[in-house]
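Please decode residue identities from the backbone states below.
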């Protein structure tokens, strides 16, 4: 089956905030890396002309990417612009005319999902959907039913193989590299299962609040915003089996299997929290029950992970900004030699830097002392010029590589897991900013060995095995 590279990129919502902060810098990076040499047509209803659109793009690069004069000259020559209403066929006829001889455009919908149906319908009417791909931004629905309806709309004009659902978090280098870490290191095969791992916890902490996004956040909450998409993707990378083949569908098959093994979340395995002062934010209801924090416990009913609980914690206004995974290993049998052995663990930090650390038990430094834990650490900080998430996902979508994109069945399985608690009336407990959530977490959702509290300063007794 042929998989032609997209010969044009059309992006709707071209004058919006996402375009300004992320898309234009990504397009410049694609130029710099030799991955973009086709027309780029922005579409919006702003009353602008092409010169104004180019001025917006240049300003974006100056503020968010660093303007590269040579790359900008090339990008400027590729840019086109169509101004018009998404409800009017004339807008899409103008898009079709601007595409010229292009036969395989990629249509990127950087717009609210409520506009998808209208845009898809007009793409079909204007013959702009033929031979095309469509790229859509999360959220992929608000619950299972809305996700299924969104998929129905997209499938009315595009095959699943032509639909690319962006979760940019999956394209971040540390997240993207987790699969390689899992399957390119033989030691992982011998210890990464229910026989050796006692529990796994995933923390996604942010030390800031909702940053003026009250209207959006009060309709979303932490579970919808980051858990059922970002964190489930990370969990799938951790728990999946090796793909049978090195292709996108084989890998995505394994990730879907992980979600299929998880029973629906029940209220007793969830604690929701809301930071004190949230209801005073602009755009937030005075009696809001939306969570800004959630801690939950999941079970994976699979051969590898049966009986190993996966704990997830995410929230706003926590003590640090960090994404970290802790897998605690079962203790060795107690003997006369090791009567008080600290618990080994594997620590994987995905942000702000990439770190893989193995905690080992070492002999006491003094006679009669206790054994201690020392981490063997490999750490890597982001390097200048590395491919950013949006450059990677746009490049891959235009090349037809679906590896980093959510498939329909994956999206619907993720919603299936959280749907029951989204529809249930569960309490929301208040917590003080700069704490690890409400006290109820430590009473109800507690991993073996307790919750990890990410340390953003490297202790002096760490041994640095590799730092590149």
């Amino acid at each position: 089956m042929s998989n032609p590279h997209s010969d044009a990129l059309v992006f709707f919502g071209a004058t919006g905030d996402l375009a300004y902060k992320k898309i234009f810098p990504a397009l410049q990076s694609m130029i710099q890396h030799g991955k973009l040499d086709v027309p780029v047509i922005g579409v919006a209803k702003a009353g602008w002309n092409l010169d104004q659109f180019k001025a917006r793009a240049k300003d974006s690069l100056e503020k968010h990417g660093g303007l590269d004069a040579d790359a900008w000259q090339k990008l400027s020559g590729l840019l086109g612009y169509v101004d018009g209403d998404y409800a009017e066929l004339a807008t899409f006829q103008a898009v079709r005319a601007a595409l010229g001889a292009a036969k395989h455009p990629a249509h990127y919908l950087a717009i609210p999902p409520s506009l998808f149906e209208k845009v898809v319908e007009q793409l079909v009417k204007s013959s702009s959907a033929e031979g095309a791909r469509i790229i859509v931004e999360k959220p992929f629905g608000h619950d299972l039913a809305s996700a299924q309806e969104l998929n129905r709309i997209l499938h009315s004009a595009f095959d699943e193989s032509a639909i690319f659902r962006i979760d940019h978090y999956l394209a971040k280098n540390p997240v993207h590299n987790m699969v390689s870490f899992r399957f390119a290191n033989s030691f992982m095969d011998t210890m990464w299962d229910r026989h050796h791992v006692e529990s796994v916890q995933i923390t996604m902490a942010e030390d800031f609040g909702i940053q003026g996004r009250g209207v959006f956040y009060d309709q979303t909450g932490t579970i919808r915003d980051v858990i059922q998409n970002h964190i489930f993707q990370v969990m799938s990378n951790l728990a999946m089996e090796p793909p049978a083949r090195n292709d996108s569908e084989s890998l995505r098959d394994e990730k879907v299997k992980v979600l299929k093994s998880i029973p629906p979340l029940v209220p007793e395995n969830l604690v929701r929290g809301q930071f004190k002062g949230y209801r005073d934010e602009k755009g937030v209801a005075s009696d809001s029950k939306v969570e800004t924090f959630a801690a939950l416990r999941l079970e994976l009913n699979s051969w590898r992970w049966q009986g190993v609980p996966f704990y997830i914690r995410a929230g706003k206004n926590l003590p640090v900004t960090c994404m970290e995974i802790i897998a605690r290993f079962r203790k060795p049998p107690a003997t006369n030699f090791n009567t008080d052995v600290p618990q080994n663990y594997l620590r994987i930090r995905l942000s702000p830097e990439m770190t893989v650390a193995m905690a080992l038990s070492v002999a006491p430094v003094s006679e009669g002392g206790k054994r201690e834990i020392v981490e063997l650490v490999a750490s890597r900080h982001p390097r200048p010029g590395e491919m950013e998430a949006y450059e990677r996902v746009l490049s891959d979508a235009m090349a037809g590589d679906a590896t980093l994109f959510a498939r329909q069945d994956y999206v619907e399985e993720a919603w299936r897991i959280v749907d029951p608690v989204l529809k249930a009336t569960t309490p929301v407990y208040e917590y003080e900013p700069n704490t690890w959530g409400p006290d109820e977490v430590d009473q109800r959702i507690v991993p073996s060995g307790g919750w990890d509290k990410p340390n953003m300063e490297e202790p002096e007794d760490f041994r640095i095995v590799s730092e590149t």
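Observation: Residues 221-239 form the longest helix (19 residues).
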